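Handoff note, outgoing to incoming analyst
You'll be picking up this chain. Sequence as last confirmed:
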Amino acid sequence: GIDMFDTVSIPCVAVVENMAEYNKYSFPDDFFENISKDVTELLQSSHASISVANLLRERIETQRKPQRIFGPGHFQRLQEMWGYDE
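Most recent structure output, in case you need it:
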């Protein structure tokens, strides 16, 4: 694996940095109050269980903020080098 990256001039540390990410969730102060109101409304509908699950999944996922352990890394340089967008 290391030889392959050396062959194409990609530092191994760049590969490690690329994979070194975890998700952090950041919820505003009123997040749970607002979602509680929406869930209460959905529970009165006929498709409550499906709708509540979708609502929770969607709202929580919008609060996900990927965190790079080693900072921004080489992404910008590689993006400019190879000319691609995210």
